[in-house]
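Box 3.1 A note on notation
Throughout this textbook, protein chains are presented in two layers. The first layer is the amino acid sequence; the second is a token string describing backbone geometry. Keep the layers aligned when reading.
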Amino acid sequence: MGKVNQFTPDDHKIVTSAVSLAEKTTDGEIVTIVTGESDHYGDIAWAISGLVALTALLLVSLFPELYLGIIDWLAGGWSGITALPYWALFVFTALKFFGTRLVLIWKPLLFILIPPPIKKARVRRRAISLFRVSTDHRTVGRTGILLYLSMREHRAEIVADEAIVEKVEPTVWGDAMVALIDLVRGGQPGEGMAEAVRKMGIVLAAQFPKTDQNPNELPDRLIEL
């Protein structure tokens, strides 16, 4: 996905160290992943373009005199057009449609227009997808957990394996999420993820204390996509 990550080599070291320290006290296995964006949102850009084109066509049909006046003005009062021809409506609508889509190639504008619920759903979907690939059922005790951060959407997700889900309510991770978002917003993404990992480690240590029978099964390093 998009490369808008703000993680430096030092940030990677901070997060990796936090994971290693947290896992010294628990059989839980923490995986950390950061990405620039969770989706390209091309379908949303096309949908917005279609909405703009249809809205423009509706305005033309409601106020044809206004557009006829503009054409007459551009022609210096000699257009001689009394009704908009169908081909002109088609060209006008097509220009609005493809023009909007061209403008929305600029991601900052597109992300302003995407409704927050759509961003939330796409980030969650991506987090679950990555969890299935990197964490799900890859530990002996089903104690893997993913901390996922999507920078452009300004959203994070925690997805846990079945043994953790059975013992820990999703709301328990609230403190970790708050710490993460606050520090990322303050320009400290590495510290944010590290602090979230530390808080996750406290919860995991209480429910899944460290035993000698549980090896380090998943990578401690921060994965940057």
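The chain has a mean pLDDT of 85. Residues 42-62 form the longest helix (21 residues).
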